[in-house]
Design a protein that fits this description.
With 125 residues, this protein is α+β, with helices and mostly antiparallel strands. The radius of gyration is 13 Å and the shape is globular. It starts with 5 loop residues before the first strand and ends with a helix. It binds flavin mononucleotide. The site of flavin mononucleotide has 24 residues, from α1, β5, β6 and α2.
Length: 125
């Protein structure tokens, strides 16, 4: 097909938990356009105003926190702290890394996210 599956949407405020976890994410609005892939974690890219950043992307309803009913697309931009609120961004999915997991707590989730980010960094390098 020559291009990666992608969604475009405005970045909205999530539960604001990501920053506490050490991985702040850009949460796309539910009414984003494009094809959202199956729940899981992906290596991919976030493009904001013409700049493409490597990202670790989560698709799902964050089952560790008995939280959101809606499927969410959240992108953690590697190694950068950029304010993306209200920006319209493109998120491209390059490689599926694993499925969504309901962890028993925050610690195992954060340990896994560290591992995910290392893998994403290696995959996109
Ligand atoms: N949430 C889960 O419940 N299970 C997961 O396996 C999971 N994996 C993730 C992997 C990555 C790389 C990222 C960036 C997020 C993942 N999440 C997972 C989502 C986090 O729970 C979510 O980003 C966090 O709760 C912050 O949510 P907020 O942006 O709404 O504050």
């Amino acid at each position: 097909l020559g291009h990666l599956p992608a969604v475009r949407g405005v970045v909205v405020h999530g539960a604001a938990r990501g920053r506490e976890l050490g991985f702040p994410t850009a949460n796309l609005a539910a009414e984003s356009e494009g094809l959202i892939p199956a729940d899981g974690v992906y290596a991919g890219w976030l493009t904001d105003a013409g700049t493409r950043y490597p990202a670790a992307i989560s698709v799902g309803n964050n089952p560790t926190f008995d939280g959101v009913a809606q499927k969410q697309v959240e992108a953690y931009v590697l190694d950068r702290d950029i304010d993306l609120y209200d920006h319209v961004v493109d998120v491209e999915f390059q490689e599926h890394i694993r499925g969504m997991v309901a962890f028993t707590g925050i610690e195992p989730l954060v340990a896994q996210m560290r591992n995910d980010v290392d893998r994403v960094r290696a995959l996109l390098a």
